[in-house]
Design brief:
This protein is mainly alpha-helical and 384 residues long. 56% of the residues lie in helices and 7% in strands. The strands form three sheets. The protein has a three-stranded antiparallel beta sheet, with no helix packed on it. Helix 11 runs antiparallel to helix 13, helix 11 (207-217) runs parallel beside helix 15 and helix 15 (328-341) runs antiparallel to helix 16.
Length: 384
């Protein structure tokens, strides 16, 4: 193919870069690329690749810092919640609006919802959106701007490799400042025990079993949803992480490789987890699922769990039982925190979590490590 050195950035992305990436990266990554390139094309797309300067990139970053996130949410006010509760039952709201029961529950509880949900509610109650909701918009985070930087670096690097431009312009662009001080949120031992005992008493199958597994193993949500029985060795007491389950609108629930190369790993499990898995196996036999699905965690009809349903279930469960604030990923972080508190070597913790390097583990759990540092200092003081 003849190289067009006058090609614009937008045409290069649409005609060469994205079509190639479609076969090189995960579906979820490709979808994210498509979303990110919209802002890039709006700002720089009409420029020839060879004419874009370092200052053009910096100007784009400045615009991003003042730009609002596309994920605008709407908080139902007291009027909205009262009209819904007084005028319609939950099933009636679902039937008249086409929304899911979880969305309706979020509305009635005053939680943030999407623009589509706000529009459907407005149509049902025959009132303008601004009389029923408070609109929330947010500036793009430093981490999001970093995503744009990395994407542009990849695009320009490939363009240089293709011979469209002589050098990768992005090699001269300073990396945007990123606050790496944010640490993982986790539960302390007492709160973790409270959540676990409440799940065992009041939780619903198979969410109780899946969430407990995440707490005991530190697996990611998608990894736990993607588990198949062939991945489990009950005799040796181990789980092999080979795949992850994802969900995308229009595509539904699908399976892909885990997040990174080191995410493929073997995790040792204890007697508690083995008994949980045996219980799941018995329940599947009772429901007649064993012959339908290879998956460990499924709906009662044998279909794979949508990872998003796990998040929604746990969020509602935490709210309903007035438990310490946490999300599914908090359980993974809690597992790591408890392992560190038990003086497990950081390389072992990183390996169990599937982190690409122990440095990531150290950064995420810096607070926990500092606590252990303090204990070490106190210990040597007593000894000497």
């Amino acid at each position: 193919m003849k190289i067009n050195k006058n090609i614009t950035l937008e045409k290069y992305i649409a005609e060469q870069w994205l079509p190639r990436k479609q076969y090189e990266v995960k579906v979820s990554t490709y979808t994210r690329y498509c979303g990110l390139t919209r802002r890039i094309n709006a700002a720089l797309g009409s420029e020839k690749l060879r004419d874009i300067s370092v200052m053009d990139i910096y100007s784009f970053y400045d615009d991003l810092r003042e730009a609002k996130s596309e994920q605008i949410t709407f908080t139902p006010n007291e009027t909205c919640r009262r009209l819904l509760k007084d005028g319609y039952t939950r099933p009636e709201t679902v039937r008249l609006t086409g929304m899911g029961m979880g969305t309706v529950d979020s509305l009635r509880a005053g939680k943030d919802v999407s623009l589509v949900t706000a529009q459907r509610t407005s149509a049902l109650l025959l009132l303008p959106i601004d009389m029923l909701f408070t609109e929330n918009d947010f500036l793009l985070s430093d981490r999001t701007i970093m995503h744009y930087h990395r994407l542009l670096y990849s695009i320009f690097k490939d363009a240089a490799y293709d011979g469209v431009i002589r050098h990768n312009l992005m090699a001269k662009v300073r990396v945007p400042k990123l606050d790496l001080s944010e640490e993982a949120r986790y539960l302390d031992l007492k709160d973790a025990e409270t959540v676990l005992s409440t799940l065992n008493e009041c939780g619903k199958y198979p969410y109780t079993e899946l969430l407990t597994l995440i707490l005991f193993t530190g697996m990611r949500r998608g990894e736990a949803c993607g588990l198949e029985w062939e991945d489990i060795n009950l005799e040796q007491g181990s789980i092999t992480v080979r795949r992850s389950s994802y969900y995308l609108p229009g595509l539904g629930t699908y399976t892909d490789t885990p997040k990174t190369k080191l995410s493929k790993r073997i995790i040792a499990i204890n007697e508690k987890v083995i008994n949980i898995l045996l219980s799941v196996r018995r329940r599947q036999s009772e429901l007649g699922i064993v012959s339908i699905s290879k998956r460990v965690f499924t709906y009662r009809n044998g279909k794979p769990l949508n990872p998003s349903s796990v998040t929604k279930y746990f969020h509602n469960f935490i709210e309903e039982h007035d438990l310490p604030s946490c999300c599914v990923h908090t359980l993974r972080h809690t597992n790591a925190s408890l392992l560190i508190a038990a003086k497990t070597p950081i390389t072992t913790v990183a390996g169990r979590l599937g982190h690409s390097t122990p440095e990531i583990t150290l950064r995420l759990y810096a607070h926990q490590m500092s606590e252990e540092n303090k204990k070490a200092a106190e210990a040597i003081e007593k000894m000497l």
